[in-house]
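notes to self, project folder thing:

trying the whole complex as one job this time. last attempt i did each chain seperately and stitching them together was a nightmare. four parts in total, labels are on each line so i dont mix them up again. if this works i'll redo the older ones the same way
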Amino acid sequence: MARTTPTIYQVARRAGVSIATVSRVQAGHRAVTPATRARVRQVIDELDYRPSRSARALAGQAHDATGIVFPDLSGPYYSEVILGYEERASEAGQSVFILGTHGRARSNEQALELADRVDGLVVMGRTVDDAVVERMQAAGIPVVMLARPPVAATDTVRAENEASARALTEHLLDHGHRSFAFLGDPEGSPDVSERYLGFCAALRAAGTGVPPRPVPCGFREAEGHRAAAALLDSGPPADAIVAANDEIAIGAVRAARERGLRVPEDIAITGWDDIALAEHVRPGLTTVRQPLRELGATAAALLTERIRGTRTEPRHVLLPTALVVRASCGPHPEQEERR
Amino acid sequence: MARTTPTIYQVARRAGVSIATVSRVQAGHRAVTPATRARVRQVIDELDYRPSRSARALAGQAHDATGIVFPDLSGPYYSEVILGYEERASEAGQSVFILGTHGRARSNEQALELADRVDGLVVMGRTVDDAVVERMQAAGIPVVMLARPPVAATDTVRAENEASARALTEHLLDHGHRSFAFLGDPEGSPDVSERYLGFCAALRAAGTGVPPRPVPCGFREAEGHRAAAALLDSGPPADAIVAANDEIAIGAVRAARERGLRVPEDIAITGWDDIALAEHVRPGLTTVRQPLRELGATAAALLTERIRGTRTEPRHVLLPTALVVRASCGPHPEQEERR
DNA sequence: TTGTAAGCGTTATCAT
DNA sequence: ATGATAACGCTTACAA
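result (full assembly):
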């Protein structure tokens, strides 16, 4: 694409100054006479000059851009997080790249490519290998990890999982449930891993025997449905299913119904995230709310501090979550919502 | 950020060739001896060399990036469209920028800035002024418009609105409804404008007097709730509300219920989009499904053709929509879903 | 087939 | 306060 927009040279010529002066004016340096500054400013406006991003980046300045890497764009979870991120980042004057890895093998490669176009980036969960992250940081680009446990000197942002999972499970125990199942893949995501830990902790503390092994399961409704169906058809009957997220739970509710089971009378089912659906689905889903937008926004904020050099000490932010009790966990005298 | 990663010079030196040769190998030019090609390749691997994006862009090549500009990230609609876009674009080897304008006044400026960092971009609805789009195109960067009626030589992608709106309204008429209201702002969005047109056409054809003026309303549930509340409290009673999207409709259902009205017995309410909630909400929402992912993916595909120069003739893609009849439009003998 | 060298549009370092 | 001018890392004629 031929450059049809004016360059710094044209501005300089027309204003009767050198390109250095234009650059200074443009950058807001003080060492410029008000008179010349005004003249240059006017020419800039007349020509509608705007400096080339590539040239600027090449000359060693910043990209004024950051990126966020996530596994997949589908479902409310990622959308909300990215929304929070984009909003905060663009307020801070940064353009934002998004990269969905979609489980591709090339994701490390793609992330590394992205790293070359930004001043810093956010990495969700286990989308890229730790070695890759280290290389990025070694190359001087700040990285913030999202939805992962704290790692050494890298900033991390996550929502509380274990304690809430424990509280959730205890709530189920209070309802009298004794035979549990966990739907989700602890291996696949740090979040799920922590939730499973909290789940187990509650069961152990209650002395309900050995906690069951998790039933591995992707994050989507269809996968939850399939896993729950298999579980219900084969295993010893569970009277409570703790799902790793709301979509899985909704799939599980469907599977239970298809088998003539009533929720929560015959089987209790809980979710995680508190997506919009959780409230509207029948029965209302007992779940754990996490501040999705805030997760993204916080990541953006931490990254900005790093880029600006405002802070050098690593920070590990843990955002609070809240148990949201609805109907799917068992019979309640009246509808309540605990926080 | 000092460049800590190897440059083309280091590769050249180590391979004992000139930088031009390295560049050729890297670009896959054929005019290189297999022997030297192999040697260079090996050094590239050894050093893990990857060319600087900025330098490449500056040297007149491409950015290998595109962008999408949308008004706001919230709600399933935008998320889905962006998902479809990102997936297709990144398959085509392009990094993707997202820019939410959030109704900011600076949106034109931001979009123009973005235009300098990409090889082409997609603009949704009326997020940026037409004059700005023209300037981008004049500057040689291809633009694809999303969710807008065809404009001259610019590629456009949209979903069918008017005919479906008409069919939807006719369905309501078939139910016997006669007093209608339309919730949404035709001024604010081309999509809504077309839906309102189809709505009016059906009413006129039915000879049901003058179609009502639209009740302006944002796209979110809270706004739908507020608008419906005002409508129900003040105006002459409507027995059918056509909402511009599902979220508005859900808000309207809530408002109706709060006033002791049963849906659909006392009042029918329809939505648009067929988001996940539409099926689960009570009563199931009669709505119009549009292929959200496909909208984004198609925009990406058109843009890629333009960038690659594969096509120069403008294309205007109109994706089909489908009436989805559920319970909220009126009593049905049995649950059915029409396509 | 390969190398030399001229840009690409900035920023930043010197002089002046 | 301002102006030359050397990077920045790459692509691409043009030579050899």
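what i see at first glance: Residues 335-339 of chain B have pLDDT under 50 and may be disordered.
need to look closer tmrw
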